[in-house]
Amino acid sequence: MLEFKDFEEKTIQRNEIFHGKIIDVVVDDVSLPNGGTSKRELVFHPGGVAVIALTSENKMLFVRQFRKPLERVILEIPAGKIDPGEGARPDLTGARELEEETGYRAKTLEHVSSMYLSPGFANEILHVYYAKELEKVANPLPQDEDEVLEVYELSLEQAQAAIADGTICDAKTVFAIQFWELLELKRRNGLA
């Protein structure tokens, strides 16, 4: 890995602004590598997990829900926050969220990627898993009390159309559909 220590910003002082259920917010005074100073507004988040889940009919599982910051309903892949105790095992979060949000379990969860979502101001990392060999659960884990979700199964063409019309507009879900497009390309070329 490349190192860029000459670009590091050193924290001079931290002012804690907010401690919440999901995020913490701070403002740091920092010294810049060029000798100047600045302020950085930072959001700390425990991280999350998203699951790319394809059924045996080659349809992807999505959940429809209202997103208050956007003031609208969107379709997303199943995802959620890493709960205390799950940090070292994000696959456990993925398995839990898949079952809670869709009523499905996977025989295996394969790690696809981990990515920072907004590194300019937040440390939230998202771990993305590919769920293999799905099975519907008779009595799934209950959904979170503060979530209202509806499950959808879309074909690749339907998912692409949902991106085009803005129903799918978040990065993790667009990434999931691009991953699916690559899987399909590999299958067509006999590589999968």
Automatic annotation (TrEMBL):
Enzyme Commission number(s)? 3.6.-.-
Q: Which UniProt keywords apply?
A: Hydrolase
Q: Which Pfam families match?
A: NUDIX
The molecular function terms in GO held by this entry are: hydrolase activity
Domain (Nudix hydrolase) spans 43-176
Coiled coil where?
Answer: none
Organism superkingdom: Bacteria
CC cofactor = Mg(2+)
Q: Which PANTHER family match?
A: NUDIX HYDROLASE DOMAIN-CONTAINING PROTEIN, UDP/ADP-SUGAR PYROPHOSPHATASE
Q: What is this protein called?
A: NUDIX hydrolase
